[in-house]
Amino acid sequence: MSMVGLRRVVEPAGVLPQAAWRLDASPEIGPDETRIRVQRLNLDAASYRQLAEKHAHNGDAIRAEVLEIVGTRGKMHNPVTGSGGMLIGVVEEVGPESPLPVKPGDRVATLVSLTLTPLRITDGLAGWDGLSEQVPAEGTAILFGRSIVGVLPDDLPPELALAVYDVCGAPALTDRVVRGHHKWHGQASVEAGTATDRVTVAVLGGAGKSGSLTLAAARRAGARTKAVVVNEAERDALVAAGLADEVAIADARNPVAVAEAVGEPADVTVVCVDVPGCEHGAILATANGGTVIFFSMATSFPAAALGAEGLAADVTMLIGNGYVPGHAEFAVDLLRQVPAVRALFEARIAAD
Amino acid sequence: MSMVGLRRVVEPAGVLPQAAWRLDASPEIGPDETRIRVQRLNLDAASYRQLAEKHAHNGDAIRAEVLEIVGTRGKMHNPVTGSGGMLIGVVEEVGPESPLPVKPGDRVATLVSLTLTPLRITDGLAGWDGLSEQVPAEGTAILFGRSIVGVLPDDLPPELALAVYDVCGAPALTDRVVRGHHKWHGQASVEAGTATDRVTVAVLGGAGKSGSLTLAAARRAGARTKAVVVNEAERDALVAAGLADEVAIADARNPVAVAEAVGEPADVTVVCVDVPGCEHGAILATANGGTVIFFSMATSFPAAALGAEGLAADVTMLIGNGYVPGHAEFAVDLLRQVPAVRALFEARIAAD
After folding, report:
1. Does a cis peptide bond (omega within 30 degrees of 0) precede residue A96?
2. Which of residues 240-269 of B touch A (CB under 8 A)?
3. Which uninterrupted H or E stretch holds B247?
4. Are the beta carbons of B22 and B74 closer than 8 angstroms?
5. Cβ distance of A319 and B322 shorter than 8 Å
6. Is B9 an 8 Å CB contact of chain A?
7. B227 pairs with which residues across the strands?
8. What is the pTM of this model?
9. CA-CA distance, A228 to A213, in Å (whole number)?
10. CB under 8 Å, gap of 24 or more: what pairs does A184-190 form?
11. Which residues of B touch A256 (CB under 8 A)?
């Protein structure tokens, strides 16, 4: 239990670090903790937008409020949006009981939210103009025993690695689910190698970052892949990339259109579209006995639960867990091995 | 696709019946439809409460608004709460292409929501005083090909069967998940019959209706069961009923308390507590490689997804699907075979 950082919670007592109003961010580590020397914060987009709008894009005022939040709460946890972000730094000290696979000197990105990461800033954010989500910073951060951290690969620009880490749960969980479907539903046909019996995976939002990695993961796990995208530009890009066996256009919020675009219902449907209202289309596009994986934070729990019941749909519905052991390495490996995914990521980063 | 009732949608065109503002409730059935002669509506508790408060518990005004909603929308879909309810009636006509396992004369309960059920009322609700969720009614309702309907058992009072049907998804899905865990994680130990290797199931809210059925289902599937309840009265009742191997008291919204109450993390944790904020406790109480099944409509999708990530918890998180084939019969069978569950249900119904 100590592994989840309870000793860092100052108030209210007894809650988990994410729920806490204030954490103890002191740099001395406990036996299961790890200290990071901070180099850069990446603020969550929603958090930065709120701060920028509140302060009319005045960089000094934005910087002052970030410093005040971190000083008051011991973490960069925006009290209005409830969101945080992530950080990059160098491992400074690892407690003797920490299970994290890092050592002093490793350059890492933290893959748990800043909303639960004890953080101390020591340079007054002097190197930041307050006008971007990317915040150069000096200070220290603490990782608990139960945490997630990715060592930044030597062969990839940090921006690219971070963009991959940001969505790395989706391809890893898709891989696990597709391989599970082979075992449960199609062992005989997999062995027979008959294409018509292959597990089919439909990805809503297949042209995005999580969507393209998910398509690549599904194919590598042996699935036949169908992508649903929102317009002709995305379709053409995805067809050119060759990441999916089929690509169709539909508004993911329109259940009838999604089901028609997918055609023969999929064994596994993965929702990578970050807009509300995609639940019923995903359910309707999935075969009985199949699985829907929701990876959009805009997913409504009641809409999914009541939607499946209303459609008498015998589908397994998964809340996309952002953590699967080895997910960061898995996604980076996919990016290295599938040039089309890397090209797509690089284009997205250049456009941002 | 016709099986989901698209032909009944009047406006807006092209959406699913639940999302529609207005349905065509005419009594002539299509080839895959079934017509029910309505005897009673059970309004959703939240819907009735909203109507009663709006009209200061004036029965005539409440009745008038229900009639207006059904007349306007072609379904009893409360536009404020978004909820419906269910109905009881007798099967009148079954289309030649309907896959539903019913025949004319069967007394049935509809297990899909009234929010998507075409409904016509012909008696002006003359037999209802407007002062209860139970609405005697004459009229007709339509079930689509893809629908869920339960024939009312001869040996149980209708109130008891309805209370069971209302929560029957939870025990059926728990049964499926527990048996899956045997196969994947413990086949050898199950065969060896070693108690310490049995799948453990923790049920948050174990003393309630869905919770008690879930405990009974988990035990019948071979699991060792732990119940977490909110106070001593519930604990004493559950201990007396003998439905769980262990019973502990904790506030399900307090993650640390829940984890301590469960002790050794469970292989499967089922959330049957209908209050917000139970996600992190359920995740923390579950072993790595385990499964959390969320059956509460108060579940927050982002809280579950971000919570698992923040805790670096490798758990499978399921959105509790209210539909599993055969779920109604499964739950009624459990009630018949486990007298303690039946006694608990009867006590709850008497108290309502």
Report:
1. no
2. 254-257, 259-260
3. strand B246-249
4. yes
5. no
6. no
7. B203, B247
8. 0.91
9. 14
10. A185/A267, A185/A289, A190/A222
11. 1, 6, 14-16
ipTM attached to this prediction: 0.90
pLDDT tens digits for range A133-152 = 999 999 999 999 999 999 99
Q: Which residues of A are less than 8 Å from B323 in CB distance?
A: 308-309, 312-314
**Of A337, A338, A295, A332, the residue nearest A160 (C-alpha):** A332
d(CA A136, CA A107): 15
Distance CA B196, CA B189 (A): 9
- Which among B254, B310, B321 has CB closest to A112? B310
Q: Where are the strands (E) in chain A, listed by range?
A: 9-11, 22-23, 34-43, 85-94, 107-110, 119-121, 134-143, 149-151, 200-204, 224-229, 246-249, 266-271, 286-294, 316-319
Q: Which residue of B has its CA nearest to A296?
A: B302
Which chain A residues are closer than 8 Å to B182 by Cβ? none
Q: What is the pLDDT of residues B147-192, one digit of tens each?
A: 999 999 999 998 899 889 989 999 999 999 999 987 655 444 445 5
Q: CB-based contacts of B213: which residues, under 8 Å, 6+ apart? A: B164, B167, B168, B170, B171, B331, B334, B335, B341
d(CA B161, CA A9): 47
